[in-house]
Specification:
It is a single chain. The chain is α/β, with parallel strands linked by helices and 377 residues long. The protein folds into 2 domains: 265 residues, 3-Layer(aba) Sandwich (Rossmann fold), CATH 3.40.50.1820; 96 residues, Rna Polymerase Sigma Factor, Chain: A. 32% of the residues lie in helices and 14% in strands. The strands form 3 sheets. It has an 8-stranded mixed beta sheet, with helices on both faces. It has a two-stranded antiparallel sheet with strand order 2-3.
Length: 377
């Protein structure tokens, strides 16, 4: 599988769709200070909105996407948006995040490839950032979102909600900016990345970097991007996002179509993983996959704050924590720890699902109920 870099991600020459763009830091101004000690010159954030901001600017809800998501949380596929919104059933008139009541903001994360500054963006010198793009943490991503909130004139969010990598940023918002969050919903994540989660991200990153077309991250001027490496990385990730029981029920040991595994053919589950990898490789920049995966590895709400318990004690928002009973990537014990340590003694909500970690995206009725309950405070 091959593809030129220009076909892998949204570009400024493409249809904007529902995106809006906020240039929060000019290229020639002081950069965004990063947790690792460097700074990022220039910052643009792509975001989408639904609903109307009230006169008091008090009804805004921030919706934060996971690793390969983007700002298109709601709405149909169309120009600029190859797929429908990733949480479409949850956002709209009368939906759990009711746009008749709330002004909803969903930004593309810092380091992404869907309009927000990331490795494929143009650096101040006119060339793509590529390998020069700095390493980010979850806190850096939230710092960019704080700049966006300031740009929009939103001093305090009525709610901040998200799952997986989005949930990491929800936690950081609640701990780092407690006076700016009234309520929150955290789904399918823990207070810090575990050793196994770091290991899984690490091998996915190695798969991309070992691709012959990676070119140290500076492949944007070439005809071929490291899509094979990223497809492999996504296949590894997909195993962890779903469950053994689902794979057995859906695929078992069935061959793919007429192929014979004993003669070099594939099992159906192998074809599924290849399809998932190739699908992502048509819409996502491998460098962004690396930057965001390594940001997830940095996730530790207790770092520099006296540990997890001390950090979570800072939270003043009303927080609902939900986990998925079949999640093997972020097991329920991690959400149980969050629920226990957060002030307010709100019990853990368990989402029942056969789909593992992806349940926070697929079990929309249950996830919607979690978010609606959080927004009620």
């Amino acid at each position: 599988m091959t593809a030129p870099p220009s076909e892998l991600f949204w570009k400024s020459s493409d249809a904007a769709g529902g995106r809006r763009f906020a240039q929060l830091i000019p290229d020639d101004g002081p950069g965004l200070s990063l947790e690792g000690g460097s700074s990022l010159a220039g910052l643009t954030v792509a975001y989408e909105t639904w609903g109307t901001l009230d006169a008091a600017r008090s009804n805004a809800v921030l919706v934060l996407h996971a690793l390969t998501g983007d700002s298109h949380a709601a709405g149909p596929a169309g120009p600029g948006h190859p797929t429908a919104g990733w949480w479409d059933p949850l956002i709209g008139p009368g939906a759990p995040i009711d746009t008749d009541r709330y002004f909803v903001v969903s930004p593309n994360v810092l380091g992404g490839c869907q309009g927000t500054t990331g490795p494929s963006s143009t650096a101040p010198d006119g060339a793509p950032w590529g390998s020069r793009f700095p390493r980010l943490t979850i806190r850096d991503q939230v710092a960019a979102e704080v700049r966006l909130a300031d740009h929009l004139g939103i001093e305090r969010w009525a709610g901040v909600v998200g799952g997986s990598m989005g949930g990491m940023r929800v936690i950081e918002w609640c701990v780092g900016y407690p006076d700016r969050v009234a309520s929150a919903a955290v789904l399918a994540v823990g207070a810090a990345a575990s050793a196994e989660q770091v290991a899984l991200c690490s091998v996915q990153c190695r798969a991309i970097r070992l691709d012959a077309h990676f070119a140290g991250g500076d492949y944007y001027g070439s005809d071929v991007a490291p899509v094979a490496g990223m497809a492999l990385a996504r296949g590894i990730g997909q195993i962890t996002y779903r469950t053994e029981a689902e794979f057995d029920e859906r695929f078992g040991r069935t061959p793919q179509d007429e192929e014979n595994p004993l003669a070099g053919g594939r099992f159906a589950v192998e074809s599924y993983l290849e399809y998932q990898g190739e699908k992502l490789a048509t819409r996502f920049d491998p460098n962004s996959y690396l930057v965001l995966s390594e940001a997830m590895n940095s996730h530790d709400v207790g770092r520099g704050r006296g540990g997890v318990a001390a950090a979570l004690s800072r939270v003043t928002a009303s927080v609902v924590v939900a986990g998925i009973d079949s999640d093997r990537l972020y097991p329920l014990a991690l959400q149980a720890e969050l629920a226990e340590l957060l002030p307010g003694d709100r019990p853990l909500t368990v989402i029942r699902s056969a789909f593992g970690h992806d349940g926070f995206l697929l079990e929309t009725d249950q996830a919607g109920a979690v978010v609606a309950r959080a927004l009620e405070g």
